[in-house]
């Protein structure tokens, strides 16, 4: 029996989901019927536009058939679940990019997979009983099917609120949040469809549009923005705990029932999408990183069991609270999948890569590229060649015939020396991508030399440290031409979670040293404050609770707290073994002051930070310690 009713009606192609007893939940069988019809009609000149609706009173589509996926997951058929998600996501992207207008008529429940089916249409219609939501955190998943893109586009921090709490949107809320476009009472839908079939003109939808009944979320935006703007899920919870209001109480109650892993990953995904303005394919690729691993490594199986199988609504999550979820776990769940990844092309294009500099940062970066299926030839004078990376006999050997040569080197002088060695052997049109942190002038000199050889060049220093290099969560600040940036982007997407094209040659280095000057200064201030709080008799946890949710908020406080046992896990909890070594901060501060001097910029705080880290590293045993080890330094000192 068919699960959809696909037919041509006048000038439109009309698809009705016909699984009302299951609230039109999207199963593998339904997907197999739906996708070919959509692809055929995209090429059919007799179909002016497509209309999608659902049979029954309760739901347009209440989501993907997660009970079916649970059965696969608990019977050793994980590959079936992964295949379903891949095919579903491909349909989501194709709907988003569909060459013709699609009118989705979304009544009743529109959840999860239903959002992926209806909310990527060009003309999204809701009615008086529409209830739209992304409830995945309830079952241990993340807002997928492009849901993180929709949430990231919502006003203010509404996306975080809806994604974490699984809040339901009525018609006005859905329009306000960007999940729908037009309100038309359901009683008028038959006339709307008839007119669309007669004319084939999508503008007809607007003529039927009416003002929806008032929603509830727009008046809540001040509270939502105040409490859901944190860098992490832990920040959000801490902010909610600072006030005892009806809003915060309801939010905390809601959060208490959701999967901690899912909520942490949801916040991370929304932030990645918003910060990078990712394409729909890249959004789905990042979501698939989680769902591919969901059955074996997350709360998904337990969440579905508790909610839909046994229906006891008493899931036993892997972690008791969001504070217990290690950040490294979220990074690992969102790492690139390599050959198993989701992409627009079924098999991504393989590049030949030369990688020069395989130390603490370069080694794991090269490994991630090799794991993604690229042919990587690596060279380093000292560091061992990682597994899966081909060992080159020399820098020239690594660079020869490579599509892209990546360098990760200690300083500008070495970069210029290596560039002088490899540029003559690089093939025409290849790209030199330097990920080292060096002075701006060296970056510009190498770029100029590459361009004279007819090569592309980009400087792309990184932020994220050794952990980020291993996890594939680095941030790249890129300088160079648009052409060079586009050539490097597929590799940047594997090695990191975010890249920003900052401008012409040297702009990446400029952004990096400005960023790290701020980082060095704020870490010193954070450490000073904790040391002073100790002497004032203020409990460190109490100080963190106040500062992390008020005007003293900073990355060095909230995400990388220098006080052991306070806030998220950081190097302070591991005897200050370096995530970002103090000597590297000293190097970056030195570069910032070198640049400041070259352009006559007044940077007294940067200059003072340089002097303090210089003393700490060279005279006070700070070498080999994390840059946050400034805290024990200040603890031992009195006022000078």
Return the CATH topology of the largest domain.
Answer: 2-enoyl-CoA Hydratase, Chain A, domain 1
Mean pLDDT: 94
Assign the CATH architecture of the largest domain: Alpha-Beta Complex
Radius of gyration, Cα only, in angstroms? 27 Å
Task: Estimate nothing, just give the exact number of structural domains.
Answer: 3
What overall geometry do the principal axes of the alpha carbons give? globular
What's the end-to-end separation, in Å? 83 Å
Structural class: alpha/beta
Low-confidence stretches: none
In CATH, what is the class of the largest domain? Alpha Beta
Please tally the helical runs, counting DSSP H or I stretches of 4 or more residues. Answer: 28
How does the major sheet shape up?
Answer: 9 strands, mixed
Oligomeric organization of the protein chains: single chain
Query: CATH superfamily of the largest domain, called what?
Result: 2-enoyl-CoA Hydratase, Chain A, domain 1
Which band does the percent of strand residues land in? 5-15%
Percentage of residues in helical conformation: 40-55%
Q: What's the number of extended β-strand segments? A: 18
Domain Enoyl-CoA hydratase/isomerase: 12-332
Family: Belongs to the HIBADH-related family.
Keywords: Branched-chain amino acid catabolism, NAD, Oxidoreductase
Protein name: 3-hydroxyisobutyrate dehydrogenase
């Amino acid at each position: 029996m068919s699960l959809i009713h696909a037919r041509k009606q006048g000038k439109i192609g009309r698809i009705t989901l016909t699984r009302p007893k299951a609230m039109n939940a999207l199963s593998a069988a339904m997907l197999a019927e739906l996708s070919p019809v959509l692809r055929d009609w995209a090429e059919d000149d007799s179909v002016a536009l497509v209309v999608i609706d659902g049979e029954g009173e309760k739901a347009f589509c209440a989501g993907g058939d997660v009970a079916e996926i649970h059965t696969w997951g608990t019977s050793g058929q994980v590959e079936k679940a992964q295949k379903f998600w891949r095919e579903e996501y491909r349909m989501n992207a194709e709907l988003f990019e569909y060459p013709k207008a699609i009118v989705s008529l979304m009544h009743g429940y529109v959840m999860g997979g239903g959002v992926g089916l209806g909310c990527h249409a060009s003309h999204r219609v809701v009615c008086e009983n529409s209830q739209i939501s992304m409830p995945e955190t309830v079952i241990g998943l993340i807002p997928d099917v492009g849901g993180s893109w929709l949430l990231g586009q919502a006003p203010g921090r509404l996306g975080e609120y809806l994604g974490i709490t699984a809040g339901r949107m009525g018609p006005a809320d859905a329009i306000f949040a960007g999940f729908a476009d037009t309100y038309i009472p359901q009683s008028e839908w038959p006339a709307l469809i008839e007119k669309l079939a007669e004319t084939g003109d999508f503008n007809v939808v607007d003529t039927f549009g009416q003002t929806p009944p008032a929603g509830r979320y727009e008046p809540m935006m001040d509270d939502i923005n105040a409490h859901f703007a944190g860098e992490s899920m832990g920040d959000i919870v801490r902010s909610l705990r600072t006030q005892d209001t009806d809003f915060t109480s309801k939010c905390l109650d809601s959060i208490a029932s959701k999967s901690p892993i899912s909520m942490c990953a949801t916040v991370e995904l929304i932030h990645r999408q918003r910060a990078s303005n990712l394409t729909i394919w890249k959004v789905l690729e990042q979501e698939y990183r989680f769902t591919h691993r969901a059955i074996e490594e997350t709360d998904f199986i337990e969440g579905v069991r508790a909610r839909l199988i046994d229906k006891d609504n008493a899931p036993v999550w892997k972690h008791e609270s969001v504070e217990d979820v290690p950040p490294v776990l979220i990074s690992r769940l969102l790492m690139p999948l390599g050959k198993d990844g989701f992409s627009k092309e079924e098999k991504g294009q393989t590049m030949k890569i030369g990688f020069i500099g395989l130390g603490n940062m370069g080694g794991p970066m090269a490994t991630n590229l090799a794991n993604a299926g690229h042919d990587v030839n690596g060279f380093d004078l000292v560091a061992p060649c990682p597994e899966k990376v081909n060992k080159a006999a020399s820098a020239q050997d690594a660079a020869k015939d490579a599509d892209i040569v990546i360098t990760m080197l200690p300083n500008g002088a070495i970069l210029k020396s290596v560039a002088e060695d490899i540029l003559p052997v690089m093939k025409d049109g290849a790209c030199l991508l330097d990920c080292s942190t060096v002075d701006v002038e060296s970056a510009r000199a190498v770029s100029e030399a590459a361009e004279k050889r007819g090569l592309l060049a980009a400087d792309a220093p990184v932020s994220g440290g050794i952990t980020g290099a291993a996890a594939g969560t680095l941030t790249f600040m890129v300088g160079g031409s648009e052409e060079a940036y586009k050539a490097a982007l597929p590799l940047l997407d594997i090695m990191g979670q975010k890249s920003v094209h900052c401008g012409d040659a040297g702009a990446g280095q400029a952004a990096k040293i400005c960023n790290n000057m701020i980082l060095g200064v704020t870490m010193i201030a954070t450490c000073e404050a904790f040391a002073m709080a100790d002497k004032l008799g203020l409990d460190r946890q109490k100080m963190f609770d106040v500062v992390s949710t008020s005007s003293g908020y900073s990355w060095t406080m909230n995400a990388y707290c220098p006080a052991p046992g306070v806030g998220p896990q950081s190097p302070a909890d591991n005897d200050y073994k370096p995530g970002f070594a103090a000597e590297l901060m000293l190097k970056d501060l030195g570069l910032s002051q070198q640049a400041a001097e070259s352009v006559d910029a007044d940077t007294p705080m940067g200059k003072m930070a340089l002097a303090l880290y210089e003393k700490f590293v060279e005279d006070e045993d700070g070498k080999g310690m994390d840059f946050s080890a400034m805290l024990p330094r200040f603890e031992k000192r009195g006022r000078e």
